Every structure is written in C-alpha cells, then in structure tokens.
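Re: weekly structure request thread

Next one in the queue (118 aa):
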Amino acid sequence: MRFLADESCDFAVVRALREAGHDVLAVAELDPGAEDLYVIERALREQRVLLTEDKDFGQLVFASRRPAAGVVFIRYASGVRERLAADVRTFVEVNEAALPDSFSTLQPGHARISRLPG
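Done, posted below.
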C-alpha cells in the first residue's frame, strides 16, 4: 500500500510500515515544513493514504471538503506510544482494503473507518 506520512506522524510508524513492505514517503524526509494543503494535495495526486497525528486534516477533509486519497488519523497519548508502530502496522494489515477513500481514526484499543465525503 502507498502512504504519505505527514511530519506529525511518529517516524516509528514510517519504519514499521516500510519494514512490512509498504511504500511510505515521509514529508520530514522530502519537504520539511510543507503546508497542510500541499501535503494533502500531494497525497491525492500520488494516490497515497495520508498518515497523520494532526487534527487539521480532519478539518480540511470534512469542513473544507478537500478531496483526499484516504487519511489515517492517529491519536495516541504519550503514555501508550510504545505500542504505536505495532498497532498502526496491525491496523493497516487488517484494514488495508478499506483505507483508500476513507478517513480512519486510530486510538489505543479502538478504530473507526468512515467514507470520505463526496
């Protein structure tokens, strides 16, 4: 699967998904400091699911109706981050077919996948 990891995405997630054989580009490596609009547009243009911990992408997708190829919004508090990379990897493995064209929210012990608007 193809992903674009926003700068807010923990790099352990990038490494874990790459190790699992996924094609993951990281904004931190490609274009540090890129604006959110540029990031979501690049992900759409390259048909990559966006990995982020930034709430602003929910605003862009739902309130501003920006098109996206898919978003995985990760919400892990500091006390449970040691599980983060493994949980994201498992979530992707189990839900890979559902992630394109969806907005997914992943929290410890809970995940929700919703179709993108439009």
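The chain has five helices and six strands. The two ends are 23 Å apart (CA to CA).
Next request, please.
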